[in-house]
Amino acid sequence: MNIEFTLNGLQHKVTITSVERAIDVLIKQCGIKSLAAECLDGHCGKCLILLDGKSAYSCIMPAFLLRDRRVETIEHFTKRHEYDLLAAELHRYGSQSCSGYHSAIALMGMMLLQKTKAPQTDEILDALENTHCNCLDPADFVAAVLNAYQKLRTTRKQYESE
Amino acid sequence: MQKNEYIPFDQLEVPGMLYACMIRATAQIGHILAIRPPALPSGYSILTADQLPLRNELKISSVSIPVFASDTVSYEGETVGLIIGPDPLLVEEFASSTAVECDGDSVHRDWRMFPSSRIAARLNLQRGKMPEVSQNDSPLVFNSYVSIEPGEFSFNSGIGALAEWDYDKLKLACPTLWPEHVRSSLASILEASPSDIELLPVLMNDSSEFYFWYPSLLAARAAFAAWTLKRPVKLIVSIKRERQYLPRVQGISLWFKSIWSSKTSRLLGIECRFSIPTGTYSVFADKILRKTAHLAADIVPGLPVSITGFAIRTNAVPMGAIESPASAAIYAMLQAHIAQAARALDRDVFELSQSTLSRMDTSKKAGAPGIAEIPFAKIAKPLLEKTDFMRKYSAYELVHKRNPGGKEALLRAISFSLAYQGASDFLPESARKSEVRLSLDRNLKAHVESDAAFASERLKAALTTLIADNLKIPPAHIFFAMQKSPHPDSVPLMSSSGIAMLGDIVRRASARVQRLRFREGLPISAHAFSSVRAQENSTHVLSKIERPSLGAAIIEVEYDTRSGIFQFIRIHISVNAGKILSPLNAKSAIRAASINAMRSCLVSTSPNAAERNDMYDHILSRSTIAIELLDDEKSTIPRPVGDIVHSLVLSCFLGIMQQLNETNRFILPFRPVSATIAEGAQQ
Amino acid sequence: MNLSEIHFPQTIPELLTLISREKNIQLIGGATTFGYLQPTRYLSFPNTIAITSRIPELHAIHKTERMISYGAACTLSELEHVYPFEHPQSASLLRTVATSAVRNVATIGGHLMYDCSFLSLWPLFACLDAELEFRAASQSHIKNIWYLVDENGRHCAAGNELLARIRIPLLSIDHIYIKRIGGNIFPGGDGAHLVSLTSVDRRSINFFRLVLAGARAFRDFEAEQRIISASHPLSPKIAQTVLHMYAESLRKTNFWNADLILPLIGQVLEDLQR
Q1: B621–A100 CB contact, under 8 Å
Q2: Which of B67, B289, B631, C82 could potentially form a cystine with B123 if both were Cys, beta carbons 3.0 to 4.6 Å apart?
Q3: What's the CATH code, domain C175-273?
Q4: Nearest by CB: B92 against C42, C188, C254
């Protein structure tokens, strides 16, 4: 069947069958490079996407559930100011994720920074837990996200007052 | 967050590529009676052993493994052939619906009880004479048993192989941490020169513990398929579906005895017997045995030691890993006995473990170059003070003494351990060298030709920082490439001495380039190599622990006695590992290793996906792990840390189990409920 | 590999027509269990699939003074801030069901109707006396959640009906006890949850439930009745009698390991004595 969905701000039309997992359609038909289908049970978190702004594992999701949804991957954010800010903060807090999880962790960070209310610690830990990266210290991630959020708000407020 | 240089293996494609999936004999083992594939549409084909153009035998070390099982299936899930075709989903469907009928030989799974015919390798390490029990000084004797189940590798960078023939040259891409092994073993099976085989680097993620010879087998299968079909072939392996047939980290079954003098509170000798399952083909079995024994024997020099180890052949997928919690088991048991002795002799646990593990070798004459004292105190004292260990330990001990068997719902326990890792490490004889060619061109761009091109992203980042610092150039100007003529004996990159060695030679090469820069014009190139000293005879204990990396750890837990679940886990680790190339990377690596070690103590990674015990995922992901790296100013090279974290965490965990219920039987992974419950539920 | 016909019904009648027309139909909410449990890269479904996420009625959450009701297609994260999950202990139970990426997709209907075993939230809903509203082509009926349990304590399928809504009477919870035992909650694992809820009104216990569910579900009505209307704090004598009753019925039903579960029940009763 043909389905349409928004991927990283652009409308996509793809032909799928009921047997395909969402990740395969995103990689093969839409050319997304940041995803990896490693465990296929949502355990590794390398397939994380944002589905209507919320985190979801694309490896355990059938492709037909993408129909008319809004999907974002880290490619959508890499050129943004928020992304550089978060990367700098993560670096400053002295912790580093392993290379396989860079995209997933950055995506979770971006999801949290987009929130209208400052994210709570539990919410940040919940988001990090999606990735199963053992290398990144959760405390560092919380501090980095909260700091980046504060900085973003301050610059935005300054911009608005000007 | 760095940008990745290479494409992940999962997404690697070449034009005109076909996909291949392995047909596994999952139902029975024994003599193959028939292979029954479903009706294949045009464009799909099957490749089995009898169609192979070349010898069906891959030589690894002294063991030969069939590329495809030709006559007999020796373990459940052994590959008998490939289904090849253009669509990856259909190929998988056909491969998994192909039936392999065998005559159903008896299957040997047990490795704790075994007849002598199933012993693949044996080790007998005897040193000194065990003290005899005399009446004057009645010694204390402790006996205990530990069993650790085989665990899963983290195939974190994908798994498989892509092969393409260009006339008689072979291009290969497969995630591996021992690129040279893939080339040399394939060259010997294809009767080609290693220079005809080009290996392309793929993205290697950091926590990959790539089973060090398995990629060679996958590459051989892909190369055969590509040769037969005259098209590029990508062999795909599903980690989820084929989980139970992929190589595993070996487990251990260990009986351990230590004898202590009750007068002088000193260790008089250790005695142990252990068995390790190695699966069907016991690749590197003797080396795994040797490492397991030496990790413990080397740290008590001059003491009587008697260690007997067996590698047991089972009808399971081949197993074995260089750095595994199982190889730290004897060492961890020694530490658990130190804690037990401290309790029995009413001694301070830290002092006793320090005096036992780092004492001078008294058997040598004064003045002779003996064994230098291992400076554990320097690393452990600050950690003990910071965590308030002594006070907590005595408080918890008191609770446990008052309340044996634990009637309280929540119990706390704390445990402390010390560990070391010598620089000379277990490595196969054929892998002792590593080399780097570093050149700086006119545009001030540095090109590094070495196995480092195959290293994990984290190691590459650390090496980049090192070179950038030395040559004063931006990190973006440093490029890694495979060596054109690599050394035939280069070390596998996942062994921690391999990593330490690579760090050292990259440092030397860049220092040399920097020196030449002021004398000669660009371009400049430098060449550095290093080799690991040959390991001494297996019956002989190393006389000196050279430049050890040291570590100390404290683990504190809260244990719910009613549900049998550890509620929270706090880990403090201090490590002195020489020069740290990148503190960020080192901390992350230690954190990941300690979680992995904790998982092997707590989480059963049964190959059956449905039985995977996921209950600690949530708890472990939120546990506090404080890591401190001691800055060693004198040191110029990084030292290996791979085993230290395993030893530390396993030792601490055994200590905790002992404190909680004074047991002498440790069955790991720790099950929260007894097996009878599951049986009851099924009835 | 079986290719299925996919339907996206917009209303409940449309979905009911589909259910009555197609014999071999699978309703899909988040499909997380399918993706998780199926080992192959491709997914297999029955011949016809109907996606429930387009039906607004199945997404609504209504709250009145006496009860709260959720549509069966509400995701687990949509329930995070409503009764009973505003209670910290049940909120943490919800968090341990799966990571947020799964909770954002998995639906409560799929969670309760998963028919190989009782998943994590089932015992909590059973303690709360949840009522399930099933719709069939011609009628709708409301069943207690224990309707899903057969005489052996196992999960039984509800037949060709659509679980539309879940209703829970609101209750002030004074004591809540949730304990996970064993490993994986999916089939083959030996995991289970013990949940107990108590409500106290003027120094007497007016509501008490204790449910244990994993591969099988267990509840002792008589023991519960013995506690209800007893005074609070519970007298040691009653606690002893009740514990004895639980021991008896656990043994009778041959339910798991009584030696492990009885101390847990003992702890629940101990809490009520304080």
Answers
A1: no
A2: B289
A3: 3.30.390.50
A4: C42
Q: CB-based contact (8 Å) between C44 and chain B?
A: no
Confirm or reject contact between C88 and chain B (CB < 8 A).
Answer: no
Averaged over B579-606, what is the pLDDT? 82
Q: State how far the alpha carbon of B204 is from the alpha carbons of A34, A48, B9, B444, B597, in Å.
A: 14, 19, 9, 27, 21
Q: What is the pLDDT of residues A54-92, one digit of tens each?
A: 999 999 999 999 999 999 999 999 999 999 999 899 888
Measured distance CA(B151)–CA(B213) in Å, rounded = 17
Contacts of C30 in chain A (CB under 8 A): 61, 65
Q: Domains, chain B, ranges and CATH?
A: 335-361+370-422+546-676 (3.30.365.10), 433-531 (3.30.365.10)
Q: How far apart, in whole angstroms, are the C-alpha atoms of residue A161 and residue B669?
A: 59
A41 touching C (Cβ < 8 Å): yes
Here the tokens at position A108 are 């979770």
Q: Which two tokens stand for residue B137?
A: 């000084």
DSSP B408: S
The position carrying tokens 């549409």 is B41
pTM of the shown model: 0.92
- Other C-beta atoms within 10 Å of C23: how many? 10
Residue type, C88: P
Task: Decide if B591 and A106 are in contact by the 8 Å CB cutoff.
Answer: no
pLDDT tens sequence across B480-518: 888 777 666 777 776 666 777 788 888 888 888 888 887
**Delimiting residues of CATH 3.10.20.30 domain(s) in chain A:** 2-73
Using alpha carbons, list the distances in angstroms from residue B92 to A8, B51, B236, C40, C42.
Answer: 31, 21, 9, 8, 9
- A53 → chain C, closest CA residue: C104
Cβ pair C6:A64 closer than 8 A? yes
**Residues pairing with B666 in the sheet:** B146
Q: CA of B103: how far to CAs of B35, B48, B77, B395, in Å?
A: 12, 18, 15, 62
Beta strands in C145-203 (DSSP E): 162-169, 175-181, 192-201
Determine the residue of chain B that is closest to C271 in CA distance.
Answer: B409
* B560-585: pLDDT as tens digits: 877 778 888 999 999 987 777 777 77
Interface touch C102/A18, C-beta < 8 Å = no
Whether C3 shows a pLDDT value over 50: the answer reads yes
Q: What is the pLDDT of residues B546-556, one digit of tens each?
A: 567 889 999 99
For chain C, the structural domain boundaries read 175-273
Q: Looking at the partner chain, which of C41, C181, C263 has a beta carbon nearest the beta carbon of B88? A: C41
CB hemisphere CA count around A49 (13 angstroms): 31
Chain C nearest-CA distance from B25, in A, is 17
In sequence order, the β-bridge partners of residue B236 are: B160
Q: How far is C45 from chain A (nearest CA, A)?
A: 8
CA distances to B464, C199, C222, C227, C264 from C207, rounded to whole Å, are 66, 5, 13, 8, 19
- The position carrying tokens 């997304």 is A32
Q: Is the pLDDT of residue B425 over 60?
A: no
- In the numeric block, which tokens belong to residue C187? 């089939």
Please report the DSSP string for A89-123 in residue order: HHHHTT----GGGHHHHHHHHHHHHT-SSPPPHHH
Residue C35, SS3?
helix
What's the ipTM? 0.95
Strands C162-169 and C67-71: antiparallel
Contact B238 C39 (CB under 8 A): yes
Domain at A2-73, CATH from 3.10.20.90, 3.10.20.600, 3.30.450.20, 3.10.20.30: 3.10.20.30
Give the alpha-carbon dihedral of C32, C38, C41, C47, to 10 degrees. Answer: -90
Left if phi > 0, otherwise alpha if psi is -120 to 50, otherwise beta: which for B47?
beta
